[in-house]
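Tutorial handout. Part one gives the primary structure; part two gives the three-dimensional structure as C-alpha cells.
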Amino acid sequence: MLASPLPGDPPASAPAGGEPDSRPNILFIMSDDHAWQAISAYGRPDGTRVNQTPSIDRIASEGMRFDRFFVENSICAPSRAAFLTGCFSTRHGVPTNAEVFDGTQPTWPAMLRDSGYRTGVFGKWHLKSNPVGFDDWKVLIGQGPYYNPPMITPEGRVRIPGYTTDLITDQGVDALRRFAASRDEDGRPFALIVQHKAPHRRWDPNPRHFRLYDDVMVPEPETLLDDYAGRSPASTLQTMTIARHLDPRDLKLIPPPELDETQALAWNAYYDDVNAAYRAAVESGELSGDDLTRAKYQRYVKDYLECVAAVDEGVGRILDELDDLGIADDTLVIYTSDQGWYLGEHGWYDKRWMYEESFRTPFIVRWPNRIDGGTTSDLLAQNIDLAPTLLDLAGIDAPERMHGESFADHLRSGGRETPAEWRDAVYYRYYESEGPHTVPKHDGVRTDRWKLIRFPEVAPDGDGPADPGCWELYDLDADPDELKSLADDPGHAEIKAGLEARLEELRRQYDA
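Part two.
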C-alpha cells in the first residue's frame, strides 16, 4: 500500500485565517455496476421500469440527468482511476483490475485538498493502493463482501459488523456532519466521496429486502434469448450468460461465507424454501431450456434489484442529512456508477463490452440555484471529464496531462450551453481477452448516431487467423439494441471508412 496523509494533516494551501470559501461543497456518490436501466429516472429504452429508485430519482427531479455519459473502459479499477485522474487507462496506468494505482499522480480530490477543500472517501476503493489526497478515509479491502466487511483506515484494518451498504451510508452521514461542522469553524468547503460496493456481483441482499420482489415478475429485456446472429463472432466467445454461467453462489444456492450466526439464520429462513422449490423444479424437468433461463433471470435480477434498493435508501439518508444540516443549497451532488451493467440484455450479466448497456453509465447532478429540476443533457460526455469539470468548478486549472474536457459551463448554464468545440465522438478500449468472462479485447468509436468496434484478436469467420481482426458497425438510431452489424454492408462502406479514420485519430489523441 502507498503512504497517504493522516486525518488532520493541513492542506498545502488552505484559506488563511479561517476566511470563508464560497466554492460549493461536492458530494460524489458512486455505486458499483449500477445499470442505468435499474434507475427509474432512466428506465429501459422501451419505456419499461424494472424497479423504483425514489431517492436517486430525487437527484434527477431536482437536477440534471445525463443521457449519454460513457466510460473509457467498462471495468471497475480502470474506470475508477479515470474518474479520479481525468485520464484514459493508457495514462493513469490501470488498464485492468490487476495493476496498482499510483496515487501520487494528479487527482481531483488531491488538487481540491491542496486548494483548501476538506476531502474524504468512504466505501469501495478497489485500486490496490491506499487513498492519497484525503483528510479522512475508510475503504473496503479489494472488492469487499456484502456482510461484516474488513476495512482499511489510516490507523490500520478493522472489521465492522453489519450490512456493507448500510455501513458505508453510516460513514458518509457521519463524515457529512463532521465536515459541515468544520466548515462552520474554518470556512473550508468539503469534497466527500461515498462509494458503494453494491450492486456488484454477487448481489447479496439485506434481509429487510428479501421479499421485496416475491410477488413481482420483473420485465424481461427483449434480447434475453439473443442468438447473436447478425454480428461478428466476438459476442459468442464470452462466458457471462445467465443461461450457462451463473454459479451456485450467484443464484443463492450457497450462502455468503461472511454471515454471522444471526445473519445466517435470517438468510436460511428465507432462501431454504426458495432453493428447495427451485431445485425440485429443475430436477423434475419442470424448468429446462428457455424456461430455466427465464427462471434464472428472475432470481438474478431480483437479488440485484434488492441490493439497489439498499443503495437508494442510503442515498435518501444522505440527501436528508444535507437538508437537516442546512447545506443542501451549498452542495453539488453527483450520483453515478463506475460503469453500466447487463440486466439480461443479450442474455448477459456483467459488463466489459462497448455495447450501450455497459459502455454507458448513469450520471446525475444536482446543483441548487444553478440547474433547474428535471433537466436532461444529451452532451456526449465521459468519465474522464469528471476531474477537469470539478477542478473548473473549484477555480483550479486542470493539468495538461488530463485527457478529459470540462463541462463546467454546461452545468453553470443549467444545461442550456454546450461547451465550445465539444467532442463529436467518444473512444473506448477494453484490454482483457484472457480476463474473467473472456470478453475479447476491443476498441471503438461512438458518435451521435454511429458506433464502430474493432476486435483485433477475433477471426472474421470465427475460425482461423484473426489478423486483421473483425469489425462491427451499428446505426444506433435504427438499431439501438445493436443486433445487426453493418460492417460488411457495401452500402455503408463510406461511413465505415470515415469512422475508421476517426478511430485512428482518437487512438493517437489518447495514446492508445
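Part three, for discussion. The two ends are 28 Å apart (CA to CA). The chain is about 30% helix and 15% strand.
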